[in-house]
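Protocol step 4 of 6: record predicted structures for both targets in the notebook before any analysis. Target 1:
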Amino acid sequence: MEIIEPTDKDKGLYHIQIIDTDKTYTRTIDLSGNAYDKAFAEFTTLKEEAYAEAKRGKVLGGLPDVVTIMEKKTLSLTCTVCGDPKPQVTWLKNGAEVYTDDQYLVSLESGKFASLTIKRVSLEDCGRYTMTVQNKYGGESVDIVVSAYKHGDTIPQAKPTLTPKSIIPPKRPIEIPGPKVVTPAPSPAPSHVSSPVGAKSPTSPKGLKSPTPARSMKSPTPTRRKSKNHFSLCGP
């Protein structure tokens, strides 16, 4: 059984049963209290180290271990680096940092192509160069031994004692970002429906007219009726 991303709700007693044809074996594991705290601390450490290992600065390749070059030539040391966030690259010569000047050119293109260019190499440029790639999750450094010879001389066979690639530990505490919370986009406001341009109010068809009473019809007039007291409805 494996518990992925353990939380406090996973604390408790766990029972394991192994049953065969003759007997049942039962074991109990108390995953609470001090036992849980130790297990959780180890889990957190391993998780942080795995995350840092995936994100730290790395040298992917391209650099030689040893370089031998003729004097007055141009030497370019180039390699590919990676890391998230993008790492910083530093070049050292015999332990002292190398800066860009008239002879040395230090560059980092697109955050992944690192290079050191030495113009008109001389015997004074010989030595051990170290490139360091590092971000907040750690990094690594590699050594390159540079030697030079004069025109017409026999190319020297350098046999340096190289140090293995050095791993730079991450800065503590290791920050692991939480899951991203996606905020839903607001619903668009309802659009106002307007009357089409040039629309006119409906009118009656041209051929229809208001009805008029027929000429043969007259307004009704009251008929004279007499009551028992002989009163007239039309006047005295």
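Target 2:
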Amino acid sequence: MGSICATNKTPAYLDKTSLIELQKHVDELNEKRVNILKWMEDNLDKKGTVNEYKNFNVKTLKEEQQRSNWLEAWEREKELVAHPSLVS
């Protein structure tokens, strides 16, 4: 029997040249962040509050974790929209 070997992929990071190129388009990036923020707000409105979950099973726990992650990302996006200088 052969063994299965799992490898962890390291996340792809932007190199210095790519980051410099991105900084040339700060207004466009900020506009995209605003659009992402609006999209996230719309999706948050469609989800119920965490208190609405009565039964704790694996599915609801995953949904709560996903909602928590979503809220954290939403807060980060709000900060970046409010203070675009944080990006550079």
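Step 5 preliminary note on target 2. The two ends are 52 Å apart (CA to CA). The chain has a mean pLDDT of 70.
Proceed to step 6 after PI sign-off.
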